[in-house]
Amino acid sequence: MQNNYKEITSDKIVSDQLMKGAYIRHDFPGFKDDFAVIHCLVKMFTPKTILEVGTSHGYGTRVLCVAFGVKPFFSFFSPVYSIDVPPKTDPDIIYPDHEDGHPRLTGKHCRFIYRYHQLYGDSRFFDYSPYYPLEAWFIDGKHDYEFCTADTLQALKSKPKLIIWHDMQIEEVCRAVIDGMSKEKENYVLYRVVDTRIGFAVRKDVLCLL
Ligand SMILES: C[S@@+](CC[C@H](N)C(=O)[O-])C[C@H]1O[C@@H](n2cnc3c(N)ncnc32)[C@H](O)[C@@H]1O
Asked: Fewer C-beta neighbours within 10 Å, C or N terminus of the chain?
């Protein structure tokens, strides 16, 4: 499986300079480092827009808003989009084994501070084209093979510069990413940040920045 991606360590991506002003996550062990990588990838590749799959409580959305320079309370426009299932969706429908869930109020740790566009629907079948150009994606929805493959293929439709996945340490996620990206080897280079849970793919025409 290793041959399908390049291994990289977070010190090649995260720097004090890029981290200036970043929102640091302390809500779960390891998230501080994972989301530092995400912040710095955004700073490095400067996409104009991003779509997050899986808003949940909005902590990741908040990291993205800060990385994109959205100002608290005052920004009118936002380059950040995030999708989750519609309000009142029974978590047991998505997670029958209770392996995850979603909050009653989607994005509650971001929506009252930073402006972003909250979308609702099933990420696998959602029509994102009205929101194009989407230059980056952060895929962090349901962490199984079917969902993660579908989310990856959805992202590729917009020909983004950058796709980031969380939880690459989950075997099904890793397989879905490798399989989903397998037809794109001419266009993208796939990386695994081995000291974090992050995977990412960069379009070859912007790769020189790494
Ligand atoms: C791991 S959480 C996301 C965490 C968040 N990105 C963060 O950084 O804190 C996964 C989220 O994906 C949502 N989700 C799962 N399947 C989905 C689907 N098919 N469409 C939209 N959202 C989905 C869940 O409701 C849940 O809120």
From this structure: N
Q: What is the pLDDT of residues 130-189, one digit of tens each?
A: 999 999 999 999 999 999 999 999 999 999 999 999 999 999 999 999 999 999 999 999
Cβ neighbour number for residue 115 with a 10 Å cutoff: 18
Is pTM beyond 0.85? Reply is yes
Is 84 near ligand 1, meaning CB less than 6 Å away?
A: yes
b/e map of 163-199 (b: 16 or more CB within 10 Å)?
Answer: bbbbbbebebbbebbbebbeebeeebbbbbbbebbbb
Pocket test for ligand 1, best of 99, 123, 127, 146 (most atoms within 8 A of CB): 123
Q: Is the CB of 94 under 6 A from ligand 1?
A: yes
State whether the beta carbon of 159 lies less than 6 angstroms from ligand 1.
no
CATH of the domain at 197: 3.40.50.150
Domain count, the chain: 1
Show the tokens assigned to 57: 């409580």
Calculate how far, in angstroms, residue 21's C-alpha sits from the geometric centre of ligand 1: 26
Ligand 1 atom 21: the closest Cα is on which residue? Answer: 84
